Amino acid sequence: MGDAASDRDKIVDATLMIGWYGRIVRHPWLSPDWAEEDMYSLFAAGAEAMGWSSSGPGDDDGLWGMNDAGQDRAGGATTRLAWFQVGLPTHRAGGPRPLPLQPLATCSWDAVARIGDVAADGVQFLVPLQLAGPSAGRLEAGLNPFHAADPAARTAATVTVDTGSNDIGRRRAKDLLEGMAALRTGPFRVTGPVRIAPTVDAPQPPLVGDMWMGPSRHPVEFDADLPEWTPDALGWLALLVAEGARRAGIATTALVGISREGAAGPGGRRR
Q1: Is the pLDDT of residue 128 over 60?
Q2: Burial class, 206, CB count within 10 angstroms (exposed 0-12 / middle 13-18 / buried 19+)
Q3: Which end of the chain has the smaller Cβ count within 10 Å, N or C?
């Protein structure tokens, strides 16, 4: 009873987040105490320049409202490098729209890359699936650039979808996979079988606190194959997962992680 009550107190709102995991070598022209810009200011400036941010999450002028961002100390092993938090409009004229996962991936990556040379092993999104609008048209329209990708850049990856203490992600995992398979994915591939982790509490991912129905209890995994390991491709794949989840009737905030094969995942676990 106590667990159910605490779950009801969790915040399931319009927050969208991204965290990048990997290694970074700081640019040599930036001194250790350089503080003219921080991760928030770099991200906010880039989003404003592209017309992606608005003055608040209730505005219709941009894709998101600026909330927060931060940089972590990178150690020798794969770790979280930086995180970014935005607020999505909850009411749009014409109804829900595709979630801005590609712009968020691109803009946040550009901010991290301003600090140093980055080798990303994984990315983790906190995705408010309850706000996801139909995305098939956006996905299909965004495929063309990937047909020009270097064949040698193809990357195998693991996709993890975690709805926390709400087991809907596990119960509808096959529907999610079928929803993705029904879409035209071009050079992207997401395949089964669905791998379901044991139903025991997993370590709380460091990216989020009470903004989802955590802690992690029901993660499911799929295999994926990407035409390239770039922010654009990772954002496209995350949007594909969101559309598959929407079609499967998964309408709660979820963690979506994408990890390169053989790399430590966004939660710090070796895949």
Answers
A1: yes
A2: middle
A3: N
